[in-house]
Structures are given as C-alpha cells and as structure tokens.
Specification:
Elements (H helix, E strand, L loop, with lengths): L35 E3 L5 H4 L4 H10 L2 E7 L6 E8 L2 H10 L5 E5 L7 H9 L12 E5 L13 E15 L7 H8 L18 E5 L4 E4 L5 E16 L4 H7 L4 E2 L6 H4 L14 H18 L3 E2 L2 H13 L7
Antiparallel strand pairs: 1-8, 2-3, 2-4, 4-5, 5-9, 6-7, 6-8, 6-9, 10-11
This protein binds fe (ii) ion (FE2).
Length: 320
Amino acid sequence: MRTELGGAAEGPITGPSGFVGSGDLYRSTDWRRRPALLRAALSASELAVLGPDRLIEILARLTGMRVFVARARRTGVSQASFVPRPASVEVFRRLVTNDGRFTVLMNGVERVDPVVAAVQEAVGVPHRWRADDVVVTYSSPGSGIGYHAGHEDGFIVQAAGQRLWRVWDSDEVDAEARRRLILNQPDDIYPLQRSMSPPVLECELAPGDVLYLPPFAPHEGTTIERSISIALGWRGVAFYHLVLGFPGLVSPPDSLAPEDVDPLFDLLPDADPEAGAMGITSSVAAILTGLEDRGCLVTDRARLSDRLATLLCSVSQPVP
Ligand SMILES: [Fe+2]
C-alpha cells in the first residue's frame, strides 16, 4: 500500500528548534584518538520527529539528494546518482514505498531543519571553524555505502531504525590514502584497501545512540531496520591547507619527495577549548612549529599568527 507523505514548501522548516539531549558528547570522547559508542546519548523521542514526512519537507528545501542503489547482496554500492529538486521529492516518495536496497544522502540539512541544527549544537564540539555540513541518511535493510574513511571527526546519530557499524583503527589507512582523503580525491581513482584486521568496534545503533569516529578511521554501516541517521562532521585541516591558503606567508618545502611531502598531510592540532585565549596562543605556536618541522618556510610569522588565531576563534570562517 502506498504511504502518503507530506507536501513540499519553500523556506526553512518552522517549529521548535530546541533539543533536549545530554549534550556535550565531545567531552565524552577520546577526541581524535579512539572511536566511541555513546548509548542513549540523545533523546530518542525528540529524534523521532525525523520521519519520512519530515524528510520530504527537508528535501523540498534542499537542492537535491544523492541516491545509492545496491545491485545484489554483498555487492555493496553498484550505482550512485544525484537527483536535483524538485524531482528528488518524487523519487524519494517512490523509494520509501519500495522494497529495494537503497541509501539516500541529503547534504546541508542543518540549513533548513532546526531540529537537525539543534542536534549539531547538542554534541557540543567547540571547533566550529571546522564544522562541515550535516548529512541525513535514509536507508533500507541490507543497504550501505560500503567500507570507507574520511578526514573528518564525525558523530553518527541514530534517529530511527537500526544500523550495524564496524569501525577500524585509523592506522589502517596508509600515508598515500590519507593524502588522497585530504585532497578529496574520489575512491574510484584510489580505492581504499579493505583492512584484513578485525574492526576495533562493532555495534548496533538504536534511536538516541551516537557513534564517534576519529579522522581516517575506516567504517562501514549496514542497515538492519529502515534507518534514519544524522552524520555530523568536523573537517580535517592539514598543514598542506595552510601552505595552499596563505601563499604569501608560508612556502612549501624545497624537496617534493614523498617522504618530505607526506607529513604536510598531518592534521592541524586542535586548540584546547578549556584554555581559552591561552589555548589559541599555544595552538598557533604548535602549528607554526609544525610547519617549520615539515620543511616549510614561514615568511611572515606575525601575519600568519594573526590569521591562524582568527581562524581558530572563528565560528563561521571557511577553511582556507
Ligand atoms: Fe562515513
């Protein structure tokens, strides 16, 4: 039987934007080091508002969605497509009433849905200048986008249904793969080699559960029961980005041999939020030393320090 779903409209979704969760999940994690499972960390009843009807409303306000359709069991992703609006709304309606295996990704949902924006706030990550857009995923049983990794620090919040997650250690991703991930080069150019080691964490997420993924930790989600999840990411910014972003203030190392260049793809250290202005100052100093240790020439230390301090304090400035 066809399920009737809500209609489409323009503008942000109105309504309550507060979110009662335990908050401050950031402090509950071994940030950047280990994956963590945080059971019942957010209110399942408040997340329940994110049903298919709500996703239709969200889609009507977004530019479109990415759809992954799996061909057969165990084959993972066989086809991915981008569906622009307004067609995305109708395609989504059809998928919801379909028994096939599919995953739908919606980017930038925090811009149009106050509940999703409130979830991003509730996790309490202070490094706002690295905040990425929020992705909501709707998926059917047996589906997933396969084994992959990214440069982001990420939280996966389960809003509805159930999903099995396997997470591997970040060390499973070698220097070449890290560089590709930092450069956002697609997997079809350099497929990530699947680890032969067992995962360091395997868990089933239920509504309200949250999974923390450190940068470069390979992970794989498989849906058990129709699932809606929220992926919150904080972009990994590498020394490489500073060389690229501030050409008058810092120059790359003379040698371009891989062993000299690879350390440029290490991530910048985060400022300690507890230390306030002192934390920013020591983080800037650590970054400048890090650049020099990697063979870069810092040509205008004072201006670069200023720019870095502004970035680390910023809540809205983009990655250089
Ligand atoms: Fe992922």
